[in-house]
Amino acid sequence: MKTAPPSRWRSRSLWFSALLCVFAVAMTSLSFSALRLAESQASRLAIPTLKNNIWVVSQLQLETLRFRQAMDDYLLDRQPADTVRLRLELLASRFEVLKEYDADQHMSAETRQQMAALRTQLDDWSQRLARLSPNPAQARRQVQAIEAELDSHLDAVHQMTLEVHLDMTQVVDNDRIGTKTTFTTLAKALSGLGISVLTMLLFLMALLARTRRLSRHLAGLNDTLEAQVEQRTRALLDSEEQLRLILAASPIGVALIRDRDGRLLFANHQLAERLGLNDATDGLSLTALLARPDLYLELYRRYRREHELRDCEVVLRGQQGDFPSLITAQSLAINGEAASLIWVYDNSRRQQLEDELRRLATTDALTELHNRRAFLAEAEPLLQRARQQGRPVSLIMLDIDHFKQINDSYGHPAGDQALRRLADALREVLRASDICGRLGGEEFAALLPGTALPDAMRIAERLRQRAAAIDVVLPSGHAAMTISLGVAELKPSDLDLAALFARADQALYDAKHQGRNRIRSLN
Amino acid sequence: MTSLSPRPWSWIALCIALSSSSAWAVGLPVNLDAPVLSISGPSTKTHTFTLHQLAALPARQITTSTQWHSGPQQWEGVPIKALLAGIDATGNSLHVSALNDYAVDIRIADIRKYDPILAYKVNGHYMPVRDKGPLVVIYPYDSLPTLNVQYYHNQSVWQVNRIRVQ
User: Fold this and answer.
1) pLDDT over 50 at A2, yes or no
2) Tell me: the pLDDT tens digits for B57-105?
3) DSSP letters of A4-44?
């Protein structure tokens, strides 16, 4: 920036403008006055005038002399009396013209009087000439008298001619001076106009040069700016594109929603597909994504308050049904407008895996009964409750007889089948409130809450019968199987589960030793 | 121009006009039957006209002011064009002379173009010699600005008595 400080330039320019205005007004009025002057002169000179026509005066003198000459000629008999009369008329006509010419103003008072006297005399002479005596001698005397009278006026006529001539020269000279003044004034006005036009031209040229310089400078700046903008735009586009790529490639669903109208600015493929969004989607908001917005009012309020959410477990409304997810939301500004960036982690798979894992950890894979650990884990609180409530609890432990032989004789599939069929039997016979599990190998256990020993014995019997009825289907034929069962009821003296287990186990042992396929109890 | 505005000296002019008419009473009266104009020239024999004869020719009126009269006057007279045509006079110019020996040349082209008249009446009256009679050359000065130059005003000859066609 090599230009002058703008404020200085502005004040200078203001000053210039004011000066220019004053100048323009002055020049306009000057031109106007000059124009009026010229116009008045022009109208004054529009029609030729007699004003300076000294001929009128000199002709009066000449006609006077001619009149006298005519009288001389008459006296010498060279001209008739009518000629004298005509010459008098011609002289009189000159006086008429002299009046119209307003010659009096150019004469001295004395001459004016003398001329007036001559004018009056003319009428007298005219009457006398009209009535000339028929006697020639008489007439001659009359004319001689007129001639003598005329001679007394000749000096006055001469004086008048001189005075009018001198005064007229003065008038003409005044006119000349006036005209000269007019032209001088006009010349001054013209030079003023010329100077102002020149000044304005110079000012305009300076302005033009400055404008051109500024515009060049501006063009340069503009080019630089454009290049910078282009570069930055490219960088921005690049980074935007990169961001878009990153977001699009993100395994987590991402959506960018404009808060004002809920317009979907961006959604990556994962989320769009899961939620059924497309480019035309609008009216979106965080709550609109939720399956049950009413359940998450607090969540939404928190987001409004804190402008961000982190890993909140919610259920979203998906295209193929609702699904659990973790959402993270962040309020931000896109192009100066508030928007929400929402990350959606589809939690349904994890939930499934967790459930599966939990199931795997607590369930025996083959029989889908509780495994030992799960059985024990559930048994303990059940025992506690029964003890507190003083209700009976019985434990049945059972074992497939000669399971090893089944395995050895018919193969493991047959053993597995036997185990599964037994588990089915257990599920059939036992109530939902009972806990049932495979403790290991061919050994099973069932804990029966609210069941005293006699009832437990009956249930055990039903189990034994159901097991004996199991027909293990083999490729090579059929195999029968039996089970032995040991039953024990919880006693107040039992300190823990282990004591109950030990008795049921002993009872099972007894059943085995006493021939299998039977039930024994120990209390 | 000046004639259109009522200035003091237009009243003076009126007084002059009145005094003039009283003067006519003492001056030579207009004689309609006396020869007042002679037209001569190489192409034509000399013709003389009395005011009666001129007044018998087709007349034309022009209302205009002149240098010698304040305010427009109504002039009546013979168009010079027609006058010349009547006597078959041809030439390039007219040498018009007056009783007072004023004389000026008028181009025939100007006569054709501007059609001036040889006026014998002003405001309905014949003009005595005292009042610039008997004849005055009148152009329509007020109608044509181009005529308002001294050249054409100089051609407004009064007290005309001779015309030579040349």
Assistant:
1) no
2) 999 999 998 888 778 999 999 999 999 998 888 889 999 999 988 999 9
3) PPHHHHHHHHHHHHHHHHHHHHHHHHHHHHHHHHHHHHHHH
Number of Cβ within a 10 Å radius of residue B128 = 22
Domain ranges of chain B: 2-165
Q: Is the ipTM of this complex over 0.90?
A: no
Q: Which residue has the higher pLDDT, A216 or A342?
A: A216
Sheet strand arrangement including A337-346: A263-267, A253-258, A337-346, A321-334, A308-318
Q: What is the pTM of this model?
A: 0.51
Average pLDDT over residues A100-124: 88
Active site residues of A: 442
User: CB contact, 8 Å: A89 with chain B?
Assistant: yes
Give the Cα-Cα-Cα angle A466, A467, A473 (nearest 5 degrees).
110
Helix, coil or strand: residue B117: strand
Cα A143 to Cα A88: distance, rounded to the nearest angstrom: 12
Element (H, E) at A519: strand A519-521
Rounded Cα distance between A240 and A228, Å, is: 17
Query: A459 and A445 in contact (C-beta within 8 Å)?
Result: no
Choose among A250, A243, A296, A294: nearest CA to A272.
Answer: A250
d(CA A445, CA A435): 8
Mean pLDDT of the A287-314 span: 80
Option in A48, A59, A126 nearest B153 (CB): A48
The answer, for B155 touching chain A at a CB cutoff of 8 Å, is no
Q: Name the DSSP letter for residue A265.
A: E
Q: Which of B16, B99, B148 sits opposite A46 (nearest CB)?
A: B148
A489: closest CA among A437, A451, A446, A458? A451
Q: From the CA of A163, how many Å to the nearest CA of chain B?
A: 22
Residue A237 · residue A245 · CB < 8 Å: no
Whether the predicted pLDDT of A245 surpasses 90: no
Give residues 66 to 105 of B whose Cβ lies within 8 Å of A. Answer: 67-70, 99-100
Residue A304 CB partners (closer than 8 Å, separation 6+):
none
Q: Hey, of A63, A67, A100, A122, which one would you mutate to test binding to chain B, going by the most B CBs within 10 A of its CB?
A: A100
In this complex, the residue of A49, A90, A92 whose CB is nearest that of residue B23 is A92
Phi-psi region of A343 (alpha: psi -120 to 50; beta: other; left: phi over 0): beta
CATH architecture group of domain B2-165? Alpha-Beta Complex (3.90)
Three-state SS for A305? helix
| Chain B stretch 113-152, residues whose beta carbon is closer than 8 A to a beta carbon of chain A | 128-132, 145, 148-150
